[in-house]
Amino acid sequence: MKKLLVIIAVCVLLITACTPKEGIEIRDGWVRMAAQGDNGAVYFTIVNYDADDELIGASVDFAEAVEMHESAMNNDVMEMRMVESVPLPTGEKVEFAPGGLHIMLVNLSRNLEVGETVNVTLHFKNHADVPLTLPVQMGPEHSGHGG
Ligand SMILES: [Cu+2]
């Protein structure tokens, strides 16, 4: 019986290792350090190996609201606009990064300290929710929420 279990375990490992990429991969995720009452921001890279999909939002349990924003320079002024959904075409990589797309955490209910990890759940139009555990980091620059 024990031997059988070992064999099954080995098979599972082999299958996992050899499966072609599929689903939705989220990598390089991080959350900007911020104080209670301020706004935070979440960044990551999504690669969609599934059929076309859309990111339609995110949720956390330590902010009043969670919105998707896109920052852009407009006449030398950095502006943010709210985005209802972000297209994730199959095979494409979509980056959420400072100065561009970001998840904005409105009115944090607690401090986000460098070195801790926090839970963020992403919601998709077709794909099941993806829960993430992301590190809190300082970020490349330090003004406002930096979006
Ligand atoms: Cu923003």
What does this molecule look like?
By secondary structure, this protein is mostly beta strands. The chain contains 1 helix and 10 strands. It has a single domain, classed as PCu(A)C copper chaperone (Immunoglobulin-like). Strands 1, 2, 3, 4, 5, 6, 7, 8, 9 and 10 form a 10-stranded mixed beta sheet that branches. The mean pLDDT is 89. The longest helix has 17 residues, at 2-18. It binds copper (II) ion. Copper (II) ion (CU) binds next to strand 8.
Q: If classified by CATH, what would the architecture be?
A: Sandwich
Q: Catalogue the ligands.
A: copper (II) ion
**CATH class wording:** Mainly Beta
| Tally of separate helices | 1
Helix content: 10-25%
Task: Based on Cα principal axes, name the global outline.
Answer: globular
Count of the domains: 1
Low-confidence stretches: none
- Overall strand count: 10
Protein structure class? mainly beta
The main β sheet shows up as: 10 strands, mixed
Q: What is the fourth-level CATH superfamily?
A: PCu(A)C copper chaperone
| CATH topology type | Immunoglobulin-like
Average per-residue pLDDT, rounded, comes to 89
Alpha carbon gap, first and last residue: 56 Å
